[in-house]
Amino acid sequence: MANIEEINDSNFQHLVLDSKSLVVVDFWAQWCGPCRKLAPVMEQIQNEFIDSIKVYKIDADKNINSAKEYGVISLPSILVFKDGIVKETMVGLMPKSAIVSNIKKYL
């Protein structure tokens, strides 16, 4: 199982907003217990949809500009981007089935 690539404020534009793929971004923080529980679920989702989506994680504490730009005030927050636009925002620890259902709407 591959680890999810961590992105930052400086490469967010290139990797997320300019992407031609559906992009799922997991905003997390080191201190966030639910974020740590969500990490393996996001890895499973990445592996299951490896040909159709890109999954990234971004530390909201270290990348305040991106968190602020997208109104992330609670962690974990998962944002689904299509053509550089946020299509879906999921806040809190959610079951894998709910996350997958929300992602599939945009495939």
In words, what does this structure look like?
The structure is a single chain. The chain is of the alpha/beta class and 107 residues long. It has one domain (5-104): Glutaredoxin (3-Layer(aba) Sandwich). 37% of the residues lie in helices and 28% in strands. It contains four helices and five strands. The protein has helices spanning 9-17, 33-48, 64-69, 96-104; strands at residues 5-7, 22-28, 53-59, 77-82, 85-91. It has a five-stranded mixed sheet with strand order 1-3-2-4-5. Helix 2 links the parallel strand 2 (22-28) and strand 3 (53-59). It is globular, with a radius of gyration of 12 Å.
The CATH superfamily bears the name Glutaredoxin
**Unreliable residue runs:** none
At the first level of CATH, what is the class? Answer: Alpha Beta
Return the string of H and E elements. EHEHEHEEH
Major beta sheet, strand line-up:
1-3-2-4-5
Total count of helical runs of at least 4 residues: 4
Question: What is the average per-residue confidence, as pLDDT, rounded to a whole number?
Answer: 96
Alpha-carbon Rg, integer: 12 Å
Amount of helix: 25-40%
The total of beta strands comes to 5
Terminal Cα separation, in Å? 22 Å
CATH architecture: 3-Layer(aba) Sandwich
Q: Provide the number of structural domains.
A: 1
Summing up helix and strand content along with how strands pair, one would put the structural category as alpha/beta
